[in-house]
Design goal:
It contains three helices and six strands, in the order αβααβββββ. By secondary structure, the chain is of the alpha+beta class.
Length: 119
């Protein structure tokens, strides 16, 4: 009985400590949609350095590939989500984005851990 109470207390303390960590797991479409109009550095923090950056006089196009492990019955191979983000060249703010499924994956199922604002 004492062990059960002690383990319950330990789990409660762990949950309280983790709730204020400032990080959350979110699906990729939500992360990108929430960052439209914000600096591209926020996406770089969440996804790392892009695979490539295409430069034009007025805009930049950042491309990230987010690999995804296949589900049990899915064929193995090159699978994931490709994300293209259009950024204003002067302000470095996100103008828009597009997501492309590669292989059998679904971009809606890909999740990443991101830093969220403290309240």
């Amino acid at each position: 009985m004492l062990r059960l109470a002690a383990s319950s207390f330990a789990v409660l303390i762990l949950l309280i400590a983790c709730s204020g960590s400032g990080y959350a797991v979110r699906p990729v479409p939500r992360i990108v949609a929430d960052n439209v109009g914000k600096p591209v550095s926020m996406l770089q923090e969440a996804f790392g350095e892009p695979r490539k950056v295409d430069v034009t006089p007025t805009k930049l196009i950042y491309v990230w590939f987010l690999p995804q492990k296949p589900k049990d019955a899915s064929p193995t191979g090159f699978q994931g989500c490709e994300m293209e983000v259009t950024v204003d060249a002067r302000s470095q703010r996100v103008l828009g984005y597009s997501l492309s499924n590669i292989g059998w994956s679904s971009c809606g199922e890909v999740q990443r851990r991101i830093r969220v604002a403290q309240r």
